[in-house]
Amino acid sequence: MLFRQRSRRPPGTLVHRIAIVLRWPIGLLTVMWRYMWRTTPIHRSECDGDVHDLPPPVPPEVLDDDVQPVEDGVGPMFRRRYSVRVEGATKRPAEVMATFAGDPNCSAPGEVAVFLKTRGRPGAMTAGDEFLIRIPGPWDGPVRVIDRTPTSFRLATLRGHLEAGQIEFGCCPDGDWLVFEIDSCARSGDRFSHLLYSWLGLAKEIQLNLWVETCLRLAARTGGRVRGGVQVQTRRLSEPW
Q1: Structural domain boundaries enclosing 187
Q2: Mean pLDDT, residues 22-41
Q3: Facing residues of 169 across strands?
Q4: Looking at the 3D structure of the chain, how many domains does it have?
Q5: Which of 79, 61, 59 shows the shortest CA–CA distance to 70?
Q6: Whole-number mean pLDDT of the chain?
Q7: pLDDT tier at 24, thresholds 50, 70, 90
């Protein structure tokens, strides 16, 4: 293995961390306000999943005991796919994804999610890089890049994340159009996050708005226009699988 388990010291100064925490209440209100007044339609569907929804194995070269796989989670696994189709784009998928991979904060809504790089070269992304995502609540979101292509990258959750699983961000051509998709396969990381996500639905809605907004911001960077709204498909899979 290339990785060894180690303690992580959160990056940034204490003042920087306090500033991020103080933005959370305002950020959550901003997300709720944006959701209420959003003009782009969101088309949601939910159904039962199957074993084909499970994430692929983590490549051995980026696997160690820090990785928090789906098997270590609590409750059902949710595969959630967020996608938008863009007409009239002036940038190619690789261009947009290179910018996003180099600095995820350029398209993620900073009111509720701030990406802090803890491992790897600034301004670029390769397999093995790590980020700490500051999010509302008692958790941080440590993740590791486990796959990187010119038009996509995949992250795995690490110990201490509120979820256990993987998430992939990608862009591909569809004729004269572009399609952005965020594909999340994860379970709650512990019983408290399971309560907030599966039972109360609070974390589930915050997550939906986070990634819907990210899709729309990525689409805006292409110079084109979103057509048909945002598609959000949720597939629920319970153990055993």
Answers
A1: 14-237
A2: 65
A3: 153, 182
A4: 1
A5: 79
A6: 86
A7: low
